[in-house]
Specification:
single chain; mainly alpha; two-stranded antiparallel sheet; 7 helices
Length: about 180
C-alpha cells in the first residue's frame, strides 16, 4: 500500500491558475518551504551536481583518470545508504505536499513540480525496489575511498556522482558502460 496521499496525484491541467502570478506562487511556496524547515535541510547539502559536459569518448578518458586517482581503504564504515534513502523520501513527500497545497490555492507551479505530482508513483517504485534489493548493512561491504571529496564513501557513489555531473543529469548507457569499463 502506498504511503502517498491519493490527493497528491491531481490533474493539474484542470486547475485554475489564472488569478495568481508565477512570482506570487513562488514566494508563497518558498515561505512555506522555509517555515517547515525544509529549506534549511536542503541548503546544507552539497552544490548541484554540475560539471563540464562530456561526450562518450571524454567520459571514457575521465573514467581512466578517475580510476587512477581512487585510493581504496580497507576499513569498514557505517551503513548510511538506507538512512539517506529515507531522508530523501521524506523530502520528496514534503515537496509534493507543498506543491499540492500550492495547486489547491490555485497557484501556478513549475513543469518540474507538475511532473513530480504526476509521477511520484514512479519514484515510490524505485524506493521500494532499493529497499528490497539493498539489505541493511549492504554498503558496509562496498570498497570505500581513502581520500578526496568522497573519502569514506563507497567508490560506486563517486562513480555515480561523476556520471551525473558530467552527463548533465542524464545517464547514457553507452557512456556509462565505457566510463565504468575504463
Amino acid at each position: 500500500m502506498s504511503r502517498w496521499p491519493p490527493n497528491c496525484r491531481l490533474d493539474l491541467r484542470k486547475m485554475k491558475t489564472a488569478r495568481n502570478t508565477f512570482v506570487g506562487s513562488l514566494l508563497g511556496l518558498r515561505a512555506t518551504f522555509h517555515r517547515n524547515g525544509a529549506g534549511q535541510r536542503c541548503s546544507t547539502d552539497a552544490a548541484p551536481l554540475r560539471s563540464e559536459l562530456f561526450s562518450v569518448d571524454q567520459m571514457e578518458v575521465h573514467g581512466k583518470a578517475l580510476a587512477s586517482s581512487h585510493d581504496l581503504c580497507r576499513q569498514r564504515a557505517t551503513d548510511h545508504i538506507l538512512a539517506r534513502l529515507a531522508e530523501n523520501e521524506d523530502l520528496l513527500i514534503e515537496a509534493c505536499e507543498l506543491l499540492t497545497a500550492a495547486v489547491r490555492a490555485e497557484r501556478r507551479i513549475t513543469p518540474a513540480g507538475e511532473w513530480l505530482l504526476d509521477n511520484f508513483y514512479l519514484i515510490e517504485e524505485q524506493i521500494r525496489a532499493a529497499r528490497r534489493h539493498l539489505p541493511k548493512g549492504y554498503s558496509r561491504e562496498l570498497p570505500r575511498l581513502r581520500n578526496g571529496p568522497s573519502a569514506g564513501l563507497p567508490r560506486a557513489y563517486d562513480i555515480a556522482l561523476e556520471t551525473i555531473a558530467h552527463g548533465d543529469g542524464r545517464v547514457d548507457p553507452e557512456a556509462l558502460s565505457r566510463f565504468v569499463a575504463a
